[in-house]
Write a structure and sequence with these properties.
It comes from Senna tora. This protein has about 500 residues and is mostly helical. It contains 21 helices and four strands.
Length: about 500
C-alpha cells in the first residue's frame, strides 16, 4: 500500500524526502527501467516490487482519481492508442505508396495500369490505417476501462478485496481487451501478429522466471549472450527456404516483402525450386527472356548441377553479391526510415520541439543507415551462402538450401544489441507460422483455417501476460517500452522516475 506516516504526502503521492531535492536518494536505472531507491518511501517499482505481495503501479501508487478523471483517462488512452496504430500503419503505407509512385514513373509503359493500382492502393491504405487505429485505440480504452471497473468493484485501496484484485486485474483486463483485434477485419487472420505478441509475452515471462528463486535455474539458459543471433539463423533457415521452395506457406504481406528485397523475379525462383526439388525445368526459356529484357544474353544448360547461372546470369558469384548489396541497400532505406522516425516523433516529441532535436534526428539517421545495412547484408548474404554451398558440393537440393540459408542470420550482428532480440523474435514468429503451414500442406497437421480465429485467442492470452507483467513486474520491461506504455495507459510513474525529477537530480549532482 501507499507509504503511511508523516513523511508521505497524500496530496501528490510523494514522500517529503523525494520532494526535497538536496536530500533525495532516489536513483533511476535507465538501462533496466526500474527504481533502485535508498528511500524506503519511494521504493515502488524496483526489484522488490516484483513479488506477488507487492502492489503494482496500476493498483496502489496512482493517486485516487475522481470519476471524471477516470473517464478522462479512458478517453485519453483510447485517443493515444488510435494515434499510435494509425501513425505506424499510416506511415508504413505512405512510404509504400511513395515507392509505388516512383516505380510508376520508371515504368512509363505501364503508366495507365499503374495509376489505377495506385488509387486502389491509396484507398486500401486509408482503410488499413483507420482499422489499425481503431484496433489499438479500442484495446487501450478497453484495458483502462476494465482496470478501473475492477478497481471500483474492489472498493477502497486499503480494502482486502482491493488488495486481492490488484494482483490479477491487469491480467484479466488485458485478456478482455485482446478481441479488439477483430476490428482490423472479421475475416482477416492475423496469425503472424498473434504469434509475435506471444513471443514477446514469452520473453517477459522468461525474464520473470530468471529473477525468480523457484524457476531461476531452469530459465538460466535463456540468458545466453548470442541467443538472439542463433534464433535469427534458425528462423532464416525456415523463412528463406520457404521463400525459394514454398512461398504459399508465408503470409501474403511478408511474401511481398521478401519478393521485393530478395531482388529476384518469380521465374528465377521457380528455376531454383525445380533444380532443388529434382524436377525437370519448366521455364528456362522464360528465364532467358527475363535476362534479355535486362540486356543480358544468357544460355542456360538444362543439365546444370548448380543454379548460379539462373540466379545471377553471366556474373560471377562475387560480382553478384557486391552489385546486389548496393541495390538492396537502396531498397532498404525506405523501409527503416519510418521505423525510426515515427517512434521518435511519438516518444521524443517534446525533445524534438524544445531541447535536442538535432541529437534525436542524428540518432534516427544513424539507426536507419545501420538497419538498412543489416537488411541489405542479410539479403545479399542469403545468395552468397547458397551459391558457396552449391559450388563446394557441386549439387543443389532441398537440404542444401536449408543449410545455405542458416548462416544468413549472422547478419543480425550488424544491428544494435537492443534491436537484435526484437528482429529475431519477429522472424521467429514468421518462421513458426511458415513451418506449421508446411506441416499442414504435408498432411501432418490440420490447416489453421479449420480453427476459427485462433489468432484472437492467442493474442488475448499474450496481451494478458504482457499487461500483467506491466502492472506487477515492471522491471522486466526496457525503459523505452515502459515510457510508451505509461504514456498510452496514463499510469503515473514514481516521482523519482519522471524526466523532470531526474534532470533536477543530475543538475544538483553536477554542482
Amino acid at each position: 500500500m501507499a507509504p503511511s506516516g508523516d513523511r508521505f504526502s497524500e496530496a501528490d503521492g510523494r514522500c517529503s524526502c523525494c520532494i526535497d531535492e538536496e536530500k533525495s536518494d532516489c536513483l533511476y536505472d535507465d538501462d533496466n527501467g526500474f527504481i533502485d531507491a535508498k528511500c524506503s518511501h519511494s521504493r515502488r517499482s524496483g526489484p522488490s516490487a516484483s513479488s506477488s505481495t507487492t502492489p503494482s503501479l496500476l493498483s496502489f501508487d496512482s493517486i485516487p482519481l475522481k470519476e471524471w478523471e477516470k473517464l478522462r483517462r479512458i478517453i485519453i488512452a483510447s485517443a493515444k492508442g488510435f494515434t499510435i496504430g494509425a501513425g505506424l500503419k499510416g506511415g508504413l503505407a505512405l512510404f509504400s505508396i511513395l515507392a509505388r509512385l516512383q516505380r510508376r514513373r520508371a515504368l512509363s509503359s505501364l503508366r495507365k495500369e499503374a495509376a489505377v493500382t495506385d488509387r486502389e492502393a491509396i484507398v486500401l491504405a486509408a482503410k488499413e490505417t483507420l482499422r489499425y487505429g481503431l484496433f489499438l485505440g479500442t484495446f487501450a480504452g478497453t484495458f483502462v476501462s476494465m482496470d478501473e471497473l475492477i478497481a471500483a468493484l474492489g472498493g477502497h485501496r486499503r480494502h482486502v478485496l482491493f488488495l486481492l484484485t490488484a494482483r490479477w486485474r491487469a491480467l484479466l483486463a488485458g485478456a478482455i481487451a485482446g478481441p479488439s483485434m477483430l476490428l482490423t477485419g472479421l475475416e482477416t487472420q492475423h496469425t503472424s501478429l498473434a504469434v509475435y505478441i506471444l513471443m514477446r509475452a514469452a520473453v517477459l515471462a522468461s525474464r520473470c522466471g530468471i529473477k525468480s528463486k523457484r524457476f531461476g535455474g531452469i530459465c538460466r539458459p535463456l540468458t545466453w549472450k548470442h541467443g538472439d543471433i542463433f534464433l535469427m539463423c534458425l528462423s532464416s533457415s525456415q523463412i528463406l527456404s520457404a521463400y525459394i521452395l514454398k512461398q504459399e506457406s508465408l503470409p501474403s504481406s511478408y511474401k511481398s516483402f521478401l519478393n521485393k528485397h530478395g531482388g529476384k523475379d518469380a521465374v528465377i525462383l521457380q528455376g531454383v525450386k525445380d533444380l532443388a526439388s529434382g524436377l525437370p525445368f519448366t521455364n528456362l526459356e522464360a528465364i532467358e527472356k527475363h535476362y534479355r529484357e535486362m540486356d543480358v544474353n544468357v544460355q542456360l544448360d538444362p543439365n546444370m548441377k548448380v543454379p548460379c547461372s539462373i540466379v545471377h546470369g553471366n556474373q560471377s558469384c562475387g560480382e553478384h553479391v557486391l552489385s546486389f548489396l548496393l541495390q538492396a541497400y537502396k531498397r532498404a532505406l525506405p523501409v527503416y526510415l519510418p521505423v525510426y522516425l515515427i517512434p521518435a516523433l511519438i516518444v521524443h516529441r517534446q525533445g524534438l520541439l524544445k531541447r535536442w532535436p538535432n541529437t534525436i534526428l542524428a540518432k534516427v539517421l544513424v539507426g536507419t543507415a545501420r538497419s538498412s545495412l543489416f537488411l541489405s547484408v542479410y539479403c545479399s548474404s542469403a545468395w552468397m551462402w547458397t551459391c558457396l554451398l552449391f559450388r563446394i558440393f557441386k549439387t543443389c537440393n532441398i537440404p542444401m538450401v536449408v543449410m545455405g540459408t542458416f548462416p544468413t542470420g549472422l547478419a543480425l550482428a550488424i544491428e544494435k544489441k537492443s534491436r537484435r532480440i526484437e528482429i529475431s523474435l519477429y522472424c521467429l514468429a514468421r518462421a513458426i507460422e511458415s513451418f506449421f503451414t508446411c506441416m499442414a500442406y504435408a498432411g501432418y497437421m490440420p490447416h489453421s483455417g479449420k480453427i476459427k480465429r485462433a489468432d484472437v485467442v492467442v493474442f488475448s492470452l499474450s496481451t494478458a501476460i504482457i499487461m500483467h507483467c506491466y502492472a506487477q513486474e515492471r522491471e522486466v520491461f526496457r525503459s523505452k517500452y515502459l515510457n510508451v506504455l505509461d504514456w498510452v495507459f496514463g499510469v503515473p510513474p514514481p516521482p523519482c522516475e519522471t524526466p523532470r525529477r531526474k534532470d533536477r537530480e543530475h543538475g544538483v549532482s553536477a554542482h
